[in-house]
Design goal:
Elements (H helix, E strand, L loop, with lengths): L1 H13 L3 H19 L3 H11 L5 H24 L5 H7 E3 L3 H8 L4 E5 L6 H10 L3 E6 L5 H11 L5 E4 L3 H7 L5 E6 L11 E5 L2 E5 L2 H9 L3 E10 L2 E10 L9 H16 L19 H16 L3
Parallel strand pairs: 1-9, 2-5, 2-8, 3-4, 3-5
Antiparallel strand pairs: 6-7, 8-9
């Protein structure tokens, strides 16, 4: 079923010019917002809890703007299946690639982290050409496996290596001594509350995956956050920001706190352009959260700070 959807619908649709796809996005927006009401309760609840003091008219405008942005992200994601490297370079500008490339000159691998704000699919495809490091991306498998396989093949066409949280070590080991930039989008709801890092985020106690901080300490990798700004419809600018060059010098939680702060700042600056329809806060705050935090910190310090 996944391959049929890919070959008969998604791939041919991706061949359309971006202008036509953005017209289709208006139709998709109308369907999602006015007819289907796609996850409206989730979006409203997330916005209300994240911006409790915001004027209701402004919050309603963000709510409405989100659905048009979300529709654009869908059609731009489809376009990613066939968009050329030349067009990607025209539509997705990297402001300061030298920040990352300086580490390449030092023969130093890095972690690149961000969230699902603005167009992340185009960066997944472009990363291996935009900077000097070999690109590796840690993703979550789609429920439709055959469709996910075809999408990952297209993501990898410019050299990106797509892996997952189970197999990323093997992917790194295959590179031997080649320097790499490991891409992690760490704003999705984690699998386990006990293995998560809990911290305030958008006015709510929130569980975050701890993978970025663990990997940074395990491999002693600098961590670089990147912000993506929408310049205009279908055009983006990416800017790198160094979170730490020496992860082993920082206490438990410092890298994750820096990441959360950077992500929250991006969301506050462009509130309609984060994925609000995701069930980000589906994990309930455990009654024994303090003991979970203590155990989590103890485990980290035992592994990375006990010697």
């Amino acid at each position: 079923m996944g391959k049929i959807l890919y070959f008969l619908f998604l791939l041919p649709l991706s061949w359309l010019p971006m202008g036509i796809l953005h017209l289709i996005s208006y139709l998709l927006y109308f369907c999602l917002y006015y007819i289907i009401g796609y996850r409206k309760k989730i979006v409203l609840n997330n916005l209300s809890k994240s911006f409790p003091e915001m004027d209701s008219k402004l919050r309603k405008q963000i709510f409405k703007d989100y659905y048009l942005h979300f529709s654009d992200i869908i059609v731009e994601g489809i376009k990613n299946l066939s968009i050329s490297e030349k067009e990607l370079n025209k539509r997705y500008k990297v402001i300061n690639p030298e920040l990352v490339n300086e580490f390449y000159k030092k023969n130093k691998s890095v972690i690149l982290c961000s969230g699902h704000i603005n167009n992340w699919e185009w960066w997944i495809t472009l990363q291996n050409k935009a900077i000097e490091h070999q690109a590796i991306g840690i993703g979550m498998p789609l429920s439709q496996e055959s469709l996910g396989t075809k999408i990952n093949e297209r993501r990898e066409r410019l050299g990106m290596i797509v892996t997952d949280s189970v197999n990323y070590k093997a992917a790194i080991n295959k590179l031997e001594d080649q320097v790499y930039a490991l891409l992690i989008l760490g704003d999705q709801s984690p699998g386990s509350v006990k293995k998560s890092y809990w911290t305030p985020f958008l006015k709510q106690q929130t569980a975050f995956t701890f993978g970025t901080e663990m990997i940074a300490n395990a491999y002693n990798l600098p961590v670089i956050y990147y912000s993506v700004k929408k310049v205009k419809r279908g055009f983006y600018e990416l800017e790198f920001k160094l979170l730490t060059e020496e992860p082993l010098s920082l206490p438990y939680g410092a890298i994750t706190e820096k990441y959360v702060s950077a992500l929250e700042n991006d969301i506050l600056n462009q509130p309609s352009q984060w994925i609000w329809s995701h069930k980000r806060w589906k994990k309930e705050i455990p009654n024994d959260i303090n003991s979970i935090k203590d155990e989590h910190k103890k485990h980290f310090n035992t592994r990375f700070r006990s010697h």
